[in-house]
Amino acid sequence: MNKTTLNSNTAISCHRALNIIAARNTVTVMWVAGHEGHWGNEQADSLAKTGAETGEPSKGYLPQSYIKQAINNKVREQDANTWTLKGPRHSKLALNNNKPHLKNLKMLLNNRRDYRTAVQLITGQAGLYYHLYKIHQVSTKTCPKCNMEDETVSHFLGQCPYYAATRAEVFNDYYTTMTDIFERYSILQIVKYANKTGRLRYDATGGNQDGVT
Question: Which domain, by its residues, includes 35?
Fold first, then answer.
């Protein structure tokens, strides 16, 4: 009641009613404990009960907080549907598990190299031949280390025999799947593996790993 600006229609109506009453009466606004036998409170409770049980529901403006919540809920619903129907397959495999990989990304914010590596591994848009071929940076998708399969993130993390020893050191497995790695290990551990291989090391002078520019 002491505010100079009001956003609530209910508060504005109360303020206006009090001003009308106070124009010809002495009005004191004070807090009164409920259910204590005060006549005014008892009358208000009785009228509220009558209004709730009889007649047509009253119509009024929706609270701004309700509108915001409804919009946020709808956006989250549409976002979830879009992710389910159109979300990148690679990212789904990396994130649709119980590991809070996106939340743990915040722990890497102070290390740009590790943060970049984590994002590459989660999105699949990494400095590996499968992705580099798609953006016309190399002439083949085949892994340059083993020459056996396309060098995808899945191949790099779990299948390439060239990194079997490093994989066993970090993941206690010589060969595994990307899905299994993202389900069992934190993004910090996965980045640790990538760093040990040196495969995603970035050269700020213009070069990338293995001479790819």
Answer: 9-53
Which tokens belong to 128? 């590996």
Q: What is the rounded CA–CA span in Å between residue 3 and residue 13?
A: 14
pLDDT bin (cut points 50, 70, 90) of residue 208 is low
Do 114 and 206 lie in a common domain?
A: yes
- Judged against a pLDDT cut of 70, whether residue 41 lies above it is answered with yes
Q: Is 184 helix (H, G, I), strand (E, B) or coil?
A: helix
Largest CA distance in the chain: 94
> Mean pLDDT, the chain, as a whole number?
87
Give yes or no for residue 210 having a pLDDT over 60.
no
Identify whether 15 is part of a domain: yes
Angle at 161 between CA 114 and CA 152, to 5 degrees: 55
For residue 151 the two structure tokens come to 């060098």
Looking at residues 106-131, what average pLDDT do you find? 93
Tokens representing 93 are 């495999």
Residue 212 has pLDDT above 60, yes or no: no
Residue 164 and residue 114 share a domain: yes
Question: Could you tell me if residue 111 is inside a domain?
Answer: yes
Could you give the number of structural domains in the chain? Answer: 2
Distance CA 29, CA 25 (A): 13
